Amino acid sequence: FAPEDDGKYALALGPFRIRDSSSVLQDAPRPEQPLILYEYAASPFAKRVREIINLLDLTVEYRPCPGARGGKFSQDLFERTGRRTVPFLIDPNTGTEMFESGDIIEYLLETYGPPEGSYDKKALWPVTFEAFSIYTSTIAAILRDMPAARRQPN
Q: Can you give 56-85 as a three-state secondary structure string?
């Protein structure tokens, strides 16, 4: 349980406050400004990036691009890059902008991950082993009827 007035993030469940006490991310750098990720739920490539973002406990502004072709954010992405490819990461803290899930994952681990020797990188294989993660993410998206693959009418 976490003390109530320590000023650190904790999940409040009624009168209890719970915080992850894992020491792995304790020394990991934190971005001052939220990262920005253009993505859509059914994309297996975007799912890989979302998984690493969650594992690293990063604050991110998600900009959904249904089917990577529809919506305001998709148009913003096209105007910014000339492409409608997701995932696309913007890190306002370093000025980095990039496509390609593998490159984004590597960047996030190097920039915001814990120090190199403080964890076993093999533990990340379900996300970093691209063939496995793409296959399982695709199967999950198909079973969920390709969520956010199409823009819903307002």
A: HCCCEEEEECHHHCCCHHHHHHHHHHCCCC
Alpha-carbon 68 to chain mean position: 16
The residue with tokens 């006490």 is 21
| Stated pTM of the model | 0.78
CA 97 to chain CA centroid, Å, is: 14
Which run of H or E residues covers position 105? helix 101-112
CA distance 46 to 140: 13
Per-residue buried b or exposed e for 71-90, using 16+ beta carbons within 10 Å of the residue's own CB: bebbeebeeeeeebbbbbbb
Q: Inform me whether the pLDDT recorded for 120 exceeds 90.
A: no
Q: Quick one: average pLDDT of 11-40? A: 81
Instruction: Give me 92's structure tokens.
Output: 């306002």
